[in-house]
Amino acid sequence: MQKVGQFIPQGLANTVMQKVGQFIPQGLANTVWAYATVQHDAPALFDTVAAEATHKAGQFKPQELANTAWAYATVQHDAPALFDTVAAASMQKVGQFIPQGLANTVWAYATVQ
Which distant-in-sequence residues (6+ apart) come within 8 Å of 97 by Cβ? Predict the structure, then answer.
């Protein structure tokens, strides 16, 4: 039996990587969340999104920060600069997080190796 994530075409990841600079924070967060949810192995995509998200982290809403941290922790993708940047941005917006967002963010940092 194949995993659902195997049906995501590699061409889609390639297109995302080519256009990543055009993505708003929600698009970046949703993309890595979707790939992590279906456990699709796309390290180059995660590297590319991490670089872009690091530059735009100050523009992320709390839910986008939480979803991004969750996605990287879920796939165990090594992105220390991203996690540092997300932590700093999260601290600036900590009062705006909903409880589930806080829980997901804390889980992500506890899970990352």
Answer: 62, 66, 90, 105
